[in-house]
Specification:
four-stranded antiparallel beta sheet
């Protein structure tokens, strides 16, 4: 009776398995630093700015909640609205510019690279002083994406005005 696993065949299978394992172990995942390194330069240009013109390596973005409601707050309160995005493409995502039509809305984000498949929070600070009633605000985010370079995010809420100070006429 012939055995399927002769010594020579076992050695061959073992060698093939070993080469396959070695090949797979050499395939390393890219780190955040690897993605940023591709855009480093000595001209003082931020990597996020260079990524804006590298259309070959554009990626795609998904905003998980592009419209937020912060509820009801009192005038003068500061509100933090957090938008969350996901890099749904195959290349690094850079959020390079934030624009708000008024000074009461301030996005706080660094030039951190978002690697493919990763999610990131984008906090926006909103100062309600001088605002009243229902407010609707927006910010525009510029990114290196093929599904539109500019993305508009919206937030809304109700602001209860503070009562104006009334002087006591009896004490005069």
């Amino acid at each position: 009776m012939r055995s399927f696993f002769r010594p020579k065949k076992i050695e061959t299978y073992f060698l093939l398995a070993w080469f396959f394992c070695c090949f797979l172990s050499c395939q390393q995942k890219k780190t955040r630093e690897d993605y940023v390194h591709a855009y480093e330069n000595k001209l003082g240009i931020k990597p996020s700015q260079l990524a804006q013109v590298d259309s070959v390596n554009f990626t795609t973005i998904q905003w998980l909640e592009p419209v937020k409601n912060f509820g009801t707050v009192h005038e003068g309160d500061s509100v933090i609205i957090t938008f969350r995005c996901r890099n749904t493409g195959e290349h690094p995502l850079f959020l390079s510019n934030f624009h708000s039509p008024c000074g009461c809305t301030i996005p706080r984000y660094t030039d951190k690279v978002i690697i493919p498949g990763e999610e990131e929070d984008v906090p926006v600070y909103f100062n309600t002083w001088g605002q009243d009633s229902i407010v609707q605000k927006s910010i525009v985010v510029t990114s290196n994406t093929s599904n539109g370079a500019k993305h508009t995010l919206f937030f809304e809420g109700k602001i209860i005005p503070r009562p104006s100070p009334v002087k006591d006429k009896k004490n005069k």
